[in-house]
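idk why but the lab printer keeps eating my pages so im just putting this in chat instead. protein + fe (iii) ion:
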Amino acid sequence: MEGAGVRLKRAFGDVHKKLDPFLLLDDFGSDNPDDYLAGFPWHPHRGIETITYMLSGRVKHEDSLGNAGIIETGDVQWMTAGSGIVHQEMPERFEGLMSGFQLWANLPSSHKMMDPRYRDIKKEDIPVVTVNENIEVKIICGEVEGVKGPVQDIITDPEYLDVTIKANSTFTHPIAKGKNAFAYIMEGEGLFSPKNPKIFSKDQLIVFDDGDVVEILTSDSKLRFLLISGKPIGEPVAWGGSIVMNTDEEIRTAFAEYRNGTFLKHKQKGE
Ligand code: FE
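predcted complex ->
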């Protein structure tokens, strides 16, 4: 349970050397509005980026920068909290399955207090590359076959792909040297190589080694998964709920500022 009572699956949510710079991946999916309507009312973030990808459904958001809107089926919201943002994320009642992901990417100490920014990426702006008749890749961030995704200039230089492979096919993709990478399966199953060839299926997380060439084979079923990589930061992590800094002192300062009304460093509307 997270937020005001949202039921979700947490693929990971801890500091792990091989997942650095990523801190958390939540998989929310339910056809029962009681599981999600409570949403994530006003809360602060500092020191991280949050990336929300809606597979289906509608989430209404508002933040202290003055942004407000709805993230709909296929859309992505990439929010850099930097020095601090206060926002709310409230799923709306939706017919059928409401599902999506929220990923947290850490920021290095040099950028933890950067100005916050926010990008709303519409489904239409996410290129879909057909690698061959069996493989389709939605590029949210990164580059495949010379096509670049709409999210650029992100501090940890991530790649964020939504890959679908038909049955009886092979997909290969290099992981850039020096980057950490993982896959999370949304649908179907596949054989992941090369180190320990093994079949993985829905809701499983596969963590790759540096410099791996990802090779995935499908047999009878199709496979859809997220493939995400980024540059590790390698700094100490102090984690206080929705705020992630380098030291406990910085966490205490952040919460003290939140309580006394000095948390937001960005300009307020009308300032
Ligand atoms: Fe949030």
